[in-house]
Design brief:
single chain; about 525 residues; alpha/beta; six-stranded mixed beta sheet; 14 helices
Amino acid sequence: MALTMASALELLRKHDQLREVIQGDRWTLNQPADHSSLKPFTDVTYDTRQAGPGSLLFCKGHFLPEYMDACGSEGPAAYVAQQDLSAHTSAPGIIVNDVRKSMSLLSAAFYGYPQNQLTLVGITGTKGKTTTAYYLHAMLGELSGGRAALFSSVDNCLDGRHYVESQLTTPESLDLFRMMRQAVDAGMRYLVMEVSSQAYKVDRVYGLTFDLGAFLNISPDHVSPMEHPTFEDYLYCKRRIAYNSRQLVMGADIQRADLIRQDASAAGIPVTTFGFGQQEADFVARKAPGKGNDYLIGPASGPMTQVSLSIAGDFNALNAIAAFAMLNRLGLEPDADALHAMEKIRIAGRMECFQADNRIAYVDYAHNYASMKALLDFVDERYGERKPEITLVCGATGGRGIDRRKGIVQAAQDRVDRLILTADDENEESSDHVDREMLSFVTNANLETSIVLDRTQAIEQGLGQPGQPGDRLRIILVTGKGEERWFKNQGRHVPYEGDDHVVARLLGTKSYDLGATGAAKV
């Protein structure tokens, strides 16, 4: 059903969002007398540059009244805002209590409620969201004949085949419902999506109920003036997924697990747990005999299946069993082809390994205490017997996730031999300032430290010169940017070669332990 002024007002009244409609000096609870109640809006947008005749414009965020001047005399047909903008436009204004919630409600209606035609899976957690989403998407794609869509922090896939780089972990609600409509029109039956804490903080998924929600883990992150003021606020936002899902899969031993179980109980939804090793859980992953990336996964009370993952690390096996548990709770059982599809997944920039002479380099997105600790645990488990010399090349995002800076240093300073601090996304804060702050957290007097702001030069220094036969093994960890081909700087994307490309070029090799090409970009 098309979205009209009349149906928009009715929907907003139903959800207690409508305050009044303002056009000029006329204030009313009904549509303006000269506005056809049956004429549908032709488009919805939050960009004044796209607000042409017939469109409905959402004035969200730090919207200044003068922004309306960019619309011109012919558009929009109406606007939705929390303030009266009639001094800058003749278009009727739908004044609401919360423009972000209203945008989600009206966008869903405009695009014909595409979520009702999809089985929706939402995945939240501090780390592992992307890998878990790719694992589950690969298995669902295999079992459904390619009719599974994916929204992730790396790529979006709307047709089961083609991948396009994403801009946000969870898109704005308007974009989310537009993409869902495209997925439905492309024949998709399933949608797997990452759900960030910000998605609940700023109502990007308002009104959306997941057929299955997953809470992988939680650790302090994203605490800054621009994100969450406290860890409590960060955790609270992530906990909202329990109240907006029909069932929940969660890590068995995650921090505040009892509280999340209480959330699920209050929401009246069942909980399924997953774990690693000897943890008590409904579904478990265990290390298979020998070394490498072979694991046994399955229900704790049933037969286990051996898988050989293309992404190294026990933490990725935990992501695999999470995806396995989620597939089971969707009422599906993976066959050999589905498991093989998961085994093939390789995500560029995540645990990507390069080797030349006595140097082994890993490129990874590790960017906080938990992910850095997991990475170093892997290095110790895989190479510890050889007593390698370990160099870490990293930075931290400016203006955001301020708590990450100390966490990275704390996780690494007693486990690496050399720390090279370098550039990362700056936003409103320079990398030099961030790196100097990180350096102030170093308390290990034996740690060799330096700041090299040019990231390519920092990686080059970290890799050093080729070794000779018999030399001590050198491990070089390059973390934070992965395959990203840009830096965020003052709201702009500044081109960058990418950590994976820099390492491959300088070592003269490709990542050596890739499995077969999976659905992810490799």
